[in-house]
């Protein structure tokens, strides 16, 4: 069964460094998302991406964050200058576009645990 | 402000019994209410979706109800098994938009 994959599974970085988190969504999916979950807290939406542009973003997704779909398979989240409070689990998700349905479920990846020291 | 509230206390239940989890919300008019399962260190896994004009939805041992008057959803797992032990997340969305999650309720099924 196809699944969303994410690399790396764990990333440790120094405060102020740039990190890129990578995701490979399910191949026929057209909607892509990033979420994060700080330890012990709820899963929070960061950004959604469709048709090569951001369709929605949260207050968390400030100028330090960017997303890109550099080729037909990868979807990346970049944090330019990491802060201690960026330490969290980052989940990528994707969903397909079904013209017969107004909703399609989002499939989540296993996550990347980001630790900022 | 919009809130999705789930019981933060863990729910312990004997194997074979029905587990019932509650999700209450305020200042929301969700088009779609969903339930996800999350295991430790893993991403959420979609279980069921119910639309605002539906009262109940079933899938195998799972049942979801949606009461827009009470602003509440109930999630039931019948004949619970130890493998059902996980955190269950209530969530809202509208179409292909973001999913907004509650804090989740941890379910422990005791053999």
Describe it for me?
The complex is a heterodimer of chains A (117) and B (111). Chain A is mainly β and 117 residues long. Chain A is 0% helix and 49% strand. Chain A is built from no helices and 11 strands. The chains are: A mainly beta (117), B mainly beta (111).
How many strands, which pairing sense, and closed or not: the largest β-sheet of chain A? Answer: 7 strands, mixed
The percentage helix of chain A is under 10%
Main sheet summary of chain B: 6 strands, mixed
Given as residue ranges, the uncertain stretches of chain A (5+ residues, pLDDT < 50) are none
Architecture blueprint of SSEs:
The complex is a heterodimer of chains A (117) and B (111).
Chain A: E1 5-7, E2 10-13, E3 19-24, E4 31-37, E5 43-50, E6 53-57, E7 65-68, E8 75-79, E9 88-95, E10 107-108, E11 112-116
Parallel strand pairs in A: 2-11
Antiparallel strand pairs in A: 1-3, 3-8, 4-5, 4-9, 5-6, 7-8, 9-10, 9-11
Chain B: E1 3-6, E2 11-14, E3 19-26, E4 32-38, E5 45-51, E6 56-59, E7 62-67, E8 72-77, E9 86-93, E10 100-101, E11 105-110
Parallel strand pairs in B: 2-11
Antiparallel strand pairs in B: 1-3, 3-8, 4-5, 4-9, 6-7, 7-8, 9-10, 9-11
Tag the structure with descriptive keywords.
heterodimer; A: 117 residues; mainly beta; 11 strands; 49% strand; B: 111 residues; 0% helix
Sum this structure up briefly.
The complex is a heterodimer of chains A (117) and B (111). Chain A contains no helices and eleven strands.
């Amino acid at each position: 069964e196809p699944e969303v994959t994410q690399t790396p599974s764990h990333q440790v970085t120094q405060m102020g460094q740039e990190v890129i988190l990578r995701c490979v969504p399910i191949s026929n999916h057209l909607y892509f998302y990033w979420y994060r979950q700080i330890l012990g807290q709820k899963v929070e939406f960061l950004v959604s991406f469709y048709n090569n542009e951001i369709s929605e973003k949260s207050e968390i997704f400030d100028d330090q964050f960017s997303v890109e779909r550099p080729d037909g398979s990868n979807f990346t989240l970049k944090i330019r200058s990491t802060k201690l409070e960026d330490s969290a689990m980052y989940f990528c998700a994707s969903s397909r576009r079904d013209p017969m349905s107004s909703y399609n479920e989002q499939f989540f990846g296993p996550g990347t645990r980001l630790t900022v020291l | 402000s919009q809130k999705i509230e789930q019981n933060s206390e863990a729910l312990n239940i004997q194997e074979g019994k029905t587990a019932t989890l509650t999700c209450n919300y305020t200042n929301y008019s969700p088009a779609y209410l969903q339930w996800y399962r999350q295991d430790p260190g893993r991403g959420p896994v979609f279980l069921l979706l119910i639309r605002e004009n539906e009262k109940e939805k079933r899938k195998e041992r799972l049942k979801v109800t949606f009461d827009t008057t009470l602003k509440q959803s109930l999630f039931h797992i019948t004949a619970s098994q130890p493998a059902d032990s996980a955190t269950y997340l209530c969530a809202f969305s509208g179409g292909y938009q973001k999913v907004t999650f509650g804090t989740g309720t941890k379910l422990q099924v005791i053999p």
